[in-house]
């Protein structure tokens, strides 16, 4: 039988209440987003947590909120990547615009997007790698917003557009956007058209997303040029092109992140240099390897 510690429950409740503060909709929709009965959520808000949720539900909510089940916490660092994504997202949210960020793997794109979705009001995050088809994407987006994602696919899309138009300055972040199948990708245009001047849209992906869009535009496939136009007709990025500039960029990125996550700073330069060692494919390794090396050296 799964057992959840009281400490984890308290951490989940703290994160849940903080998320509710940043949610612009009613408590009923917020509780639905996390699969909680609204009456139960009301009791949790009043400090009653005993026997209110199953162990599996506690773990599911912890995962959705990014609550660590261990004592090791990856602390946020204001890296150049984070600052650029934050500026982009806040601009898109304030002015209901669209942008696209495409750059190398393991530089903190997903971490930044998740952090913003948990701290900005009405900022909704969808991981497209987990919902590649149009139906799965629609249901995932509905859940992120906090509306009913069941029933007919066309009805779900209608509810999504209605909810986004009703909320105050919402923004949708679509991470791993290159994983979306063609019909799901086309639906993004439909959602954008249905929320013009009412909702911001921000796509994030690795360099494969850039190739997917450029190839689609090149062969004049329906939707690609229109979507790219709605995303400001340009790719936002941070990593510089030249090898020497890249090494400088990665050294600062790794140092910024590791320095706030290390108790023994004497090992900082060693780990940074290990990450800067060129790997297979003549590429510099990034933050994923840095985290593993930090664990090994702790």
Number of helices: 14
The assigned CATH architecture of the largest domain is 3-Layer(aba) Sandwich
CATH structural class of the largest domain? Alpha Beta
> How are helices and strands ordered from N to C?
HHHHHEHEHHEHEHHHHEEH
Shape: flat
The helical percent reads 40-55%
* Oligomerization status of the protein chains: single chain
Indicate how many domains the architecture comprises.
3
Question: Main β-sheet, in a few words?
Answer: 4 strands, parallel
Distance between the termini: 32 Å
How many β strands by DSSP? 6
Instruction: Give the overall pLDDT as a whole number.
Output: 91
Gyration radius from CA atoms, angstroms: 20 Å
Strand content: 5-15%
Low-confidence runs: none
> Largest sheet, order of strands side by side?
1-4-3-2
What structural category characterises the helix and strand content?
A: alpha/beta
CATH fold title of the largest domain: Rossmann fold
What would CATH call the homologous superfamily of the largest domain? P-loop containing nucleotide triphosphate hydrolases
Notes on the protein architecture:
With 298 residues, the protein is of the alpha/beta class. It folds into three domains: 6-65; 80-231, 3-Layer(aba) Sandwich (Rossmann fold); 243-297. Helices cover 55% and strands 8% of the residues. It has 14 helices and six strands. The chain has a four-stranded parallel β-sheet, with helices on both faces. The mean pLDDT is 91.
